[in-house]
Amino acid sequence: MNRRDFIKLTIKGTAALALFKGLDGIFRPSDVLAWTSLRRFVFLVDTYKCIGCGFCVKACKLENEIPFDAGVSRTWVERYIVNGEGEVFADTPKEARYGFTTGRIDLGRGKFKDIPAEEIKKAYFVPKLCNQCEKPSCVQVCPVGATYQNADGVVLVDRKWCIGCGYCIMACPYGMRFFHPVHRVADKCNFCYHRINQGLRPACVQACPTGARLIGNIKDPADPVEKIIRTQQVAVHKPEYGTNPQVYYIGLGEEVR
Amino acid sequence: MVLESLWTVKELFVYPNEYIYWAIQIVMYPFMTGLVAGAFVLSSLYHLFGIKPLKEIARFALVFSFALLMVAPLPLLMHLGQPQRSLYVGLTPHFTSAIAAFGVVLFVYGSVVAAELWFLFRKHLVEVSIELKSKTNKSLTETIRYAVHTILTLGAMDVSDAGLKLDAKAIKVLAGVGVPIACFLHGYAGFIFGSVKANALWMTPLMPVIFIMSAIVSGVALCMLIYIIIMRMKKFIASRKNDSAALSTVKEMNSEEISTVQTSVKYLIFFMIFSISLELLDLVFRGYTAVKSWDILRNVIYGTDFVNIFLLQYFMGNLVPLILLLLPGLKIRRLIPALLLVLFGVFMMRWNVVIGGQSFSLTFSGYMDYQLPIIPNGLETFKEGLGGALLIAALPFIFFWILNKVFPVLQTKGPD
Amino acid sequence: MHVLRPLFVVLALAAIILIARSILIPSDFGIHERGYTYGWYRQSNIEEWKNFTVQYQGREFCAACHTQQAQKLTSSKHKNIECENCHGPALSHPADPAKLDLDRSRELCLRCHANLSYPNSQRSQIKGINPDQHNPGLECVLCHNPHEASKPH
Question: To probe the interface with A, which of C123, C124, C134 has the most A CB atoms within 10 Å?
Answer without folding.
Answer: C123
